[in-house]
Amino acid sequence: MSTQPQQPDPVPEGAMTEPEPEEEQGLPAPGVAEARGAGGEGPGPDAAGGPAIGEADERAAEQAAALAELEDRWRRALADLENLRKRHARELERERAAERARTAVALLPVVDNLELALSHAEADPGSIVEGVRAIRDQAVDSLARLGYEREAETGVPFDPARHEVVGVVEDAEAEPGTVVQVLRPGYGAPGRQLRPVAVAVAKRE
């Protein structure tokens, strides 16, 4: 009995042959390619939180830090603005108090002379008129030094910026619309008046 291996029968011409197993053709077994990844080199960079996710987290952290810095600057600016407003309010109140004091100081001599005139009224009643007139002139001068000169002219054309009409008088010798009588003097120039001049103006029939 012969022990030599039997040779396969020759394949008839034109007959189809069965494909060899994949392992014998040098191809990986099913499932191996999937485990190696699409490129056949193992899992991709994003398979388990690779570099792409780390870069995104770093950018988010940088943006959060920039936002916190901007918010801190904004709060500091608001605090500086509030401090400036309070300081301006304090300075404005000091200026108002100083201006009131300057005005009161200018009027003190008027008050002193009024008291002096009253103290001499019983001794010499005739001197009261002269004393009151002098005090009036002193008060007018004080107002002028403060920038409010007395306005009490007659014979000038009516000016709505300076005058307030409180009466109309028939006067054949005066031009219509001319100030013929001052009923109450005004103080200050147009645009910065304490009050306008109260006048009566002329008219013709």
What does this structure look like?
It is a single chain. The chain is an alpha+beta fold and 205 residues long. The chain contains 3 helices and 5 strands; from the N terminus they run H-H-H-E-E-E-E-E. Helix 2 runs antiparallel to helix 3 (127-145). The longest helix has 69 residues, at 51-119. The chain starts with 31 loop residues before the first helix and ends with a strand.
**What's the total number of strands?**
5
Name the helix and strand elements from N-terminus to C-terminus, one letter apiece: HHHEEEEE
Amino- and carboxy-terminal Cα gap:
169 Å
* Total count of helical runs of at least 4 residues: 3
Biggest β-sheet: count, sense, barrel?
3 strands, mixed
* Quaternary structure classification: single chain
Bulk shape: elongated
* Relative strand content: 5-15%
Largest sheet, spatial ordering of strands: 2-5-3
Low-confidence stretches: 21-25, 32-40
Rg calculated over all Cα atoms: 55 Å
Q: Estimate the mean pLDDT confidence.
A: 79
Percent of residues in helices: 40-55%
* Class by SSE composition: alpha+beta
Task: Summarize this structure briefly.
This protein has 205 residues and is α+β, with helices and mostly antiparallel strands. It is 45% helix and 12% strand.
Identify the notable features of this structure and list them briefly:
205 residues; alpha+beta; three-stranded mixed beta sheet; two-stranded antiparallel ribbon
